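Sorry to interrupt, but I need a hand with the structure work. Can you supply me with one protein entry, sequence and fold together? No commentary is needed, just the two lines. Leave the record below and I will have a look.
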Amino acid sequence: MHAKPTGNVFMTDSHLRSVTKGVTWRITATMDTILLAYLVTGTFSTAVKIGLVEVMTKIALYYLHERMWNIIPYGRIHGVGPTHARSLVKGISWRFFGTMDTIIISYFVTGIWFHSFAIGGFELITKVLIYYVHERVWGRIKWGRIIASKVPATPHKRNGSVHEERVRDKEAILP
């Protein structure tokens, strides 16, 4: 059984961890997109064009998605990582944005809506499964994970009035 955070302890990820997760995901996902685009269009050069354009747009989208989920505490267990439910919900939310991007890019490359929606539709299945596995693997990696405890402000007297002294958060970045 996983222990829930107590008191003012919380877990967050460093920016470098988010970038690294984005790069590893993009490599994996681009290979999947190229394969799916080839199966739909039958043209390897078209599939590679779609995959290469996605590299540019999706790394930025994924980083923004990671930072958005970094502030959402749902399903995050202190010192352990994400729950299965968090990984699944996060995967579904990412897939929505990722599929819209794939459909638009596929249309610009092929000019054929049917191909665009077919590639996007197949991705709904393959990418959710692959993303879930990616999240579970990264959930076991402690590198770049920050465990922090909020230290409450302490009141003290200065010039006859009470002021709160702000104390910085204590952080432990896991190697």
